[in-house]
């Protein structure tokens, strides 16, 4: 549903930067869902029961809480928020991988980390094009 929303925005905008960003967001959501759908059901069940800790490095450290969009946000604001959100996901995945976890969970989070790093590079390229 969310990917369809972004795809609709991409197909109806005349602004190249908005089209690139919304197309990226639509594909990002689909790729993540597809990666999780490829998991064997028994592995998925076992992974969902794997205990994981998320502890920011410092007591005053926030990450996801930093992602705010002002009312009337521009496409550039959305792009900056998406890059910050990707930074947070990369940090989260690295922190999970630093823990003692099951090999299946480690493989999943390594895959998620690589995917998020690729996505972040794509977002930074869109930002560097300065379409906004």
Layout of strands and helices, then pairs:
Layout: H1 2-12, H2 16-37, H3 41-48, H4 75-97, H5 103-128
Helix pairs in contact: 1-2, 2-5, 4-5
Structural notes for this entry:
With 132 residues, the protein is an all-alpha fold. It has a single domain (2-128), classed as Ferritin (Up-down Bundle). Helices cover 68% and strands 0% of the residues. It contains five helices and no strands. Helix 2 packs antiparallel against helix 5 (103-128) and helix 4 runs antiparallel to helix 5. It is globular and about 45 Å long. The chain starts with a helix and ends with a helix.
Count of spatially separate domains: 1
User: How much helix is in the residues?
Assistant: 55-70%
**For the record, what CATH class applies?**
Mainly Alpha
Helix/strand structural class: mainly alpha
Order of helices and strands: HHHHH
CATH topology: Ferritin
The general outline is globular
Number of strands: 0
CATH architecture: Up-down Bundle
Strand content: under 5%
Distance between the termini: 26 Å
What can be said about the biggest beta sheet? none
Q: What radius of gyration results from the CA coordinates?
A: 17 Å
Uncertain ranges = none
The tally of helices reads 5
Mean pLDDT: 78
